[in-house]
Amino acid sequence: MSDLVALIALFVIITIVGASGRYGENRLKSLSVAWVLFLLITFPTLSTEWARMTSELVDDDEDSHYGLPDIWEGKQVVCFNFPEENAPEGYGGGRHHIDSDGTKFLTDSDWNGSGACIGGFSDFENGIELMDEAVMVSGGDFAYNSTQFSFGMQIDSIGWIEPCDAAPCPEDFSSGAYWGLYHNGQMALVGISDLPLEDDSVVTWKIETW
Amino acid sequence: MLDAHAVTLSPAETFILNVSLLVIIGWSMWKAEKTLTPGNDAMVLVLLGAFAVSGRVLLDPLPNIQPVTAIVLLAGVHYGAARSTVLATTIALISNIFLGHGIWTLYQAAGWSLVGIAGSLLSDRMTLSGSISVSRVAAFSVAAAFLFDWVVSLSALHSFGAEMLPVYIISGIPFDILHASGNVFFVAWLSNPISEIMSRHNTRRTVVRETVALRS
């Protein structure tokens, strides 16, 4: 959004400077050249910012991208869901969305939960590679701790939130909590490091209890 | 065997090549027009149509920047609704032979025809003291960009419901803005020479080309 404001401000400045020149008939010629060049050079930024600003959430609940911004359709996404009272700082009050270049946009305050989805990725073939990229894009807000077992990697905490922060975990193990991994809405049958991805995979982490 | 055409051009080199070709076509058109007898408006429409088709095809790598809207608008102002509609429809069809023909061709033809018809209806307002007003034509060309693009957007109704149309139109606004800026560019640089040619070969009315200072 701030990029869009900066572009509009720059456009206005170029127009004012161009229009204030004493070129008579040629004033519009030089201004038109400046406008076209400016818009062509900034078009990728302009169209991306506009797409983010006008994006809507996918409302087809059969779609694995349900509830995600429509500009991410066909792209890979990682979501970190937290209970409202245990969300990392700055990620409460709904689901936040972070584009693959780190730009935050479009918070879904109606979402049943808190956290963030980081998306717009492509060409990742393995779950852990995508997750590491998403963590990096978030600036480390969703950094995770893990333990490597013989059967695979277990996620101990995400964004410094451990499952037992959100649910009771008595020492007798009569109940407990863990970070559950979902792939396209289905509980993953393998760990994140062994998870093969599709072009439009949605990987979701949320705290589950037993 | 030597393959003399095995030259791969970068996008920038291709763009320079295309602009060079368009300049050659424009310059040739300019020279060819000089040999016409006055009042030969049909041949002028053919030449302008050829330039518009070439411009649209050659500038295709630039998003939504092409000379067709400006040329059709000027044709409407000088030659009226009927001839600008013929020009608009022919340009849409021929250029889409190269760019891709489909249901959208009908909407593009309709969109550009509407621009020409509007130019015809507003032709009195596009002139000042009998000469073309570049600033007024430029201002209308901005509106024409949105008019054309939104008419063409109606073709999306063949793919999804009407409730998606506003979303589709809003998402395309950056492309509309580029179209508008391109129109202003072509009007600023071409409206005086093209108006001069059209006036010299106009059998419908007289719009004398004179240099008009921009009104601020």
What does this structure look like?
The complex is a heterodimer of chains A (210) and B (216). Chain A is of the alpha+beta class. Chain A has two domains: 2-54, no CATH class; 70-209, Ferric Hydroxamate Uptake Protein, Chain A, domain 1. In chain A, 30% of the residues lie in helices and 26% in strands. Chain A is built from four helices and nine strands, in the order ααββββαββαβββ. In chain A, strands 3-2-4-1-9-7-8 form a seven-stranded mixed sheet. In chain A, helix 1 (2-19) runs antiparallel to helix 2 (26-54). The two termini of chain A are 42 Å apart. Chain B is an all-alpha fold and 216 residues long. Chain B has a single domain (11-200), classed as Orthogonal Bundle (Arp2/3 complex 21 kDa subunit ARPC3), CATH 1.10.1760.20. Helices cover 69% and strands 2% of the residues of chain B. Chain B has seven helices and two strands; from the N terminus they run ααααββααα. Chain B has helices at residues 11-34, 41-58, 68-99, 103-121, 134-153, 165-171, 173-200; strands at residues 127-128, 131-132. A two-stranded antiparallel sheet of chain B has the order 1-2. In chain B, helix 4 packs antiparallel against helix 5. The longest helix of chain B has 32 residues, at 68-99. Mean pLDDT of chain B is 90; it is low at 208-216.
